[in-house]
Amino acid sequence: MDEKRKIIPNGEPQIIAEAKIGALVVFPVLRDSGNGYQEVMFEKFVRPPGTRIIALKEEKIFLQRERRLEIQNKLDWRLPGGKVIDSFKEYKEYLGKEIPENIILQAGRRELQEEAKMLAKDIKIFKKSSCGALVEWDLYYLIAENIEASENIHNEGEEIVGGKWFTYDEILLMCTTGEIDEDRTVAALYQFIQSKK
Prior knowledge:
There is one protein chain. By secondary structure, the chain is of the alpha+beta class. It has 2 domains: 44 residues, no CATH class; 147 residues, Alpha-Beta Complex (Nucleoside Triphosphate Pyrophosphohydrolase), CATH 3.90.79. It has 4 helices and 12 strands. Strands 5, 6, 7, 8, 9, 11 and 12 form a 7-stranded mixed beta sheet that branches. Strands 1, 2, 3, 4 and 10 form a 5-stranded mixed beta sheet that branches. Helix 3 runs antiparallel to helix 4. The mean pLDDT is 88.
């Protein structure tokens, strides 16, 4: 990176407007314009991160069929997942910091049990996906192995309408044909499956 284009964090983020799921936040940074550093305020919408769980069994991945409001209530195949932290109010202490790994893994285990009625003996972070410059909504993709059935501990309502195990080749085809619509999940699944070949 060109040193003249360097941007450095400068102080604590400031919350401008807060809602239940996120907030408009200003991050003070120092930017080197070539004539010295100048403080600028970098504004973005921040929401707590989420998880997506790549549950594995016999070289198959579990997907669930969901009714999604963001795609006009159409059905989409998704990885089980949800929030790492339920509200922005609870997330504030991590603003501008990394969330501890144990909190992310605990959330992944909880979401897998709530949504897919499964327990994972082994779970680890595969990758972190960042949303972009103006919206901070990280997704942690987790690999869950040694899966066993569990009781459903949470009612997901009408969002989830079923689930099924798919082979890697079936999933690659679903990513290509648009049956899996969440773009970041398509990229993560491609990366994961390629890492297994």
